[in-house]
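Supplementary Note 3. Input sequence used for the single-chain structure prediction.
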Amino acid sequence: MPKHVLMSEIEIITDGGHRRRWTAAEKLRIVEETLDGQASISVVARRNGVAPNLLYRWRRLMLEGGSVAVTEDDDVTSNSVVREMENRIRELERQLGRKTLEAEILREALDKSRVKNRPCSRGRH
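The predicted structure, written as discrete structure tokens, is reproduced below.
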């Protein structure tokens, strides 16, 4: 090859089509790198091999819901929504209790009516 032709080094990175799984500790460490303000989110993402949009998502989840949201990768639910759901569950449990009691009362009444309507077996005519 002639000396006057410059060859540049090319690095090709392939992931083989596999999704990488990040541990909670890795997610927290990477998100914390974005919070110190020394590097942009894109730079931190590139340095750690994370898609920038995924890092933005982790960061948003952590800022909204703390480390638990990042660990579980779940959406954050507000306390007021949780309270509403708990109240609804309590109301449904009360209604279920009333319906269960009604069913027992009706079953007892049905059993008593069957006993009263049975013909006598003593042989009276």
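The chain has four helices and no strands. The chain has two domains: 22-75, 77-115.
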